[in-house]
Write a structure and sequence with these properties.
By secondary structure, this protein is of the alpha/beta class. The chain has one domain: NAD(P)-binding Rossmann-like Domain (Rossmann fold), CATH 3.40.50. It has 8 helices and 7 strands; from the N terminus they run βαβαβαβαβαβαααβ. It has a 7-stranded parallel sheet, with helices on both faces. α1 packs across α8, α3 packs parallel to α4 and α4 runs parallel beside α5. The protein is globular, with a radius of gyration of 17 Å. The model has no long low-confidence stretch (mean pLDDT about 95).
Length: about 240
């Protein structure tokens, strides 16, 4: 399939999980991409597997997003789509989360996303089919116990996406809100068979999401098929938020 032929894209958090699957899907559908992550070893393996350009960068560090975007645009020769999939999960009681941890979560999940969007603006404005796809979470809609910092940061990503959809048009900005997906981020508790069963039972389809489920939505949002979709919140959770 060549639905994304002619699309130049930056995909962050691409060393694993949703970001990696999204990179794979974009390449399958004909896009030219640069993958970004702070994990050099994993990112280099992904880039080699997909035969794509890669840039190692910690997007939580001030100045890093601008440098990453500048280099990526130079390699791509332009930019049509930015997928912000980089993120971290912190799951612990609110009273144990100190200021340093709050800052770390927001630096990656919220400020890194905002900085990437801002840095990408000049290149995106030069494109006739520009779009930004931000990976939020169902926790932005339905927080769970022990996820106060994570949920708050993802709610920020959702509201940022809606704000930018209005402010940056005709650049389309949409948010994807995955449910509980089987990735490295969740393997700590998903390895327990009983917990997996209980998590699957939390959604109407009684199943667990895969990174590929999110990747397909991201590819759709980057395509011409989504040309009239802007400011949307697409929930991919098997019906968990309504079960």
């Amino acid at each position: 399939m060549t639905r994304l032929a002619g699309i130049n894209a930056i995909i962050t958090g691409a060393a694993s999980g949703i970001g990696k699957s999204t990179a794979e899907r974009f390449v399958e559908q004909g896009a030219k991409i640069v993958v970004v992550d702070r994990d050099r070893a994993k990112l280099e393996r992904v880039a080699a597997e997909l035969n794509v350009e890669h840039i190692v960068g910690d997007l939580a560090q001030r100045g890093s997003p601008a440098a990453v975007v500048e280099e990526a645009v130079a390699r791509l020769g332009g930019l049509d789509t930015l997928v912000n999939a980089a993120g971290i999960l912190v799951s612990q009681p609110f009273e144990t989360i100190d200021e340093d941890l709050w800052e770390q979560v927001f630096a990656v999940n919220m400020f890194g996303v905002a900085s990437m969007c801002r840095a990408a603006l000049p290149a995106l404005r030069a494109s006739s089919k520009a779009s930004i796809i931000n990976i939020a979470s169902v926790n932005a809609l339905r927080p769970s116990e022990g996820t106060s910092a994570y949920s708050a940061s993802k709610a920020g990503v959702l509201m940022l996406s809606r704000s930018l959809a209005e402010e940056l048009a005709p650049i389309r900005v949409n948010a994807v809100c995955p449910g509980i997906v089987d990735t490295g981020m969740t393997e700590g508790f998903m390895s327990d068979p009983e917990i997996r069963t209980s998590i699957a039972a939390m959604n109407a389809l009684n199943t667990i999401g895969k990174p590929e489920d999110i990747a397909g939505v991201c590819a759709f949002l980057a395509s011409d098929d989504a040309r009239f979709i802007n400011g949307a919140q697409i929930t991919v959770d098997g019906g968990m938020t309504y079960s």
